[in-house]
Amino acid sequence: MPSSACSHSRMTAVPSPHAKSAGYTRASPTALLAASEPSGRVSRRSAQAGLASGRRRSEPSEEVESEIALPPAPTYPGPLVLPGDDLAEDPKYPTQSLRAWLRLKERNPITDEKRTVYVVSPPAIDSSVDDMEKWAVPTYVKRNQPQLNSWLGSQPLTEDIISYIRAFFTGLPVRRLESSLQFSRWDDNPKSYIGLECPTTSEVIGIRHRADPTRLFPRQLNLNDLLDAALEILPDDAYCILLLMPYDLYEDDADDFCCGRAYGASRIAVISSARYNPALDASQDVNEAHAWPLSHCAEYVRSLCAPLAASKPRPKSSALVIGCERVDSNTPLGAAIQAASEALPDSRETYLLRVCRTATHELGHCFGLDHCVYYACFMQSTSSVAEDVRQPPYACAVCVSKLGRATGSGEVGHVSALADVCEGRSGAGWAALGAWASARRRALDGKGEYIAE
Ligand SMILES: [Zn+2]
Ligand SMILES: [Zn+2]
């Protein structure tokens, strides 16, 4: 859908009409509320907190007799579950409530000795493999030096990514690891391997590489081998470590590419920024004009569901009823949509935010957060870059209850830091996230701090 044809005047905060036919059943309001309770049950306190922060909703409950309420949908909309989305393909993916997260055995405790989040810049390239820098550049980009340099120069800066991670996990120390990793020639089998030197331990790890089956990039690196390197350089005081890679990655022979992976129990994660460059949007069916929060534009959702509804033998008249409402800029979602609609596009900033979002997602796994099926959320699983950009960068009501406990800073601290880090950035995504976080902070207004159990 061309953005010029769309005024984004109505938004939708519930799963799309496709969700039902795909087999996705959303948790009830009671179950959603219970999911962010440490007991796994709705308490009177949470019912009252819900009432205080949101629209009233009647819901019978075994635990409480009073009315209970969630934050209103335009604060935390449901997942869109559009055709082809990961939740549409895997609609029964299990939930992970706060209670399940608290009881998760594989989750590493955050201790005084191990609480620092480390971020590692892309490795340097030894002169023995200097051709490798071309691997980070799409095959269609001309091979001359100015073109290469301008492509490589558009990569997000590590310091900007760290600033975002620091805000998102506010309360924990986030540091750049000065590891001086370096790629070098792997003499035994240079056609399939490249060496990654880890100076702190004098180890050289062999990293497999292969031709990109999608032909977008010349070569891809094996992410499991990179994670071995992460394990090698993991500092003693690390809660976890994140490697930033400008190269396209793959996990095994069965996949085309992979933008990130974490082994939370092992405290390690790696992400690739390669495919998030907005210059590649056309080749990946990415609709930046309807990236989050404009992914909640009712017309856009309708346009993506319409072809499927039309292909059904006897489409029911209800097949395309979109739950939609007027954009109200007093709500976090409405404020985000309005800010995004008014902002000037800035592809460099868009690129940065996409990478930041994936960085926090993979780090979220290191903190024991599983994929989120409750709401639109930074912890949603994703099947494509196109889906990725439709998902929000923020943590939903359930995930923020886990984060608040992990970092000790609670929801108020989290959204305040997010609002602050968006200031001074430009482009629609940052404007939207800043507006969302500021509206959420206003709504919390002193409430929502982490209450010790
Ligand atoms: Zn994930
Ligand atoms: Zn979530």
Question: How would you sum up this structure in a few lines?
Answer:
The protein has 453 residues and is an alpha/beta fold. It has helices at 17-22, 29-35, 44-53, 86-89, 98-102, 145-153, 158-168, 223-233, 298-311, 332-342, 347-366, 385-388, 397-407, 410-422, 428-444, and strands at 10-12, 116-120, 124-125, 174-176, 182-185, 193-198, 203-211, 219-222, 238-245, 248-250, 260-263, 268-272, 324-326.
Task: Give descriptors for this structure.
453 residues, alpha/beta, Collagenase (Catalytic Domain), 2 domains, 6-stranded mixed sheet, 5-stranded mixed sheet, 15 helices, 13 strands, disordered C terminus, binds zinc ion
Could you characterize the architecture of this molecule?
By secondary structure, the protein is an alpha/beta fold. It folds into two domains: 267 residues, no CATH class; 165 residues, Collagenase (Catalytic Domain) (3-Layer(aba) Sandwich). Helices cover 34% and strands 13% of the residues. The strands form three sheets. Strands 3-5-6-7-8-10 form a six-stranded mixed β-sheet. Strands 4-2-9-12-11 form a five-stranded mixed β-sheet, with helices on both faces. A two-stranded antiparallel sheet has the order 1-13. A hairpin with a 4-residue loop joins strand 6 and strand 7. Helix 10 runs antiparallel to helix 15 and helix 14 runs antiparallel to helix 15. One zinc ion binds next to helix 13. One of its GO terms (molecular function) is metallopeptidase activity. This is Archaemetzincin-2. InterPro entries: MetalloPept_cat_dom_sf, Pept_M54_archaemetzincn. Pfam families: Peptidase_M54. Keywords: Hydrolase, Metal-binding, Metalloprotease, Protease, Zinc.
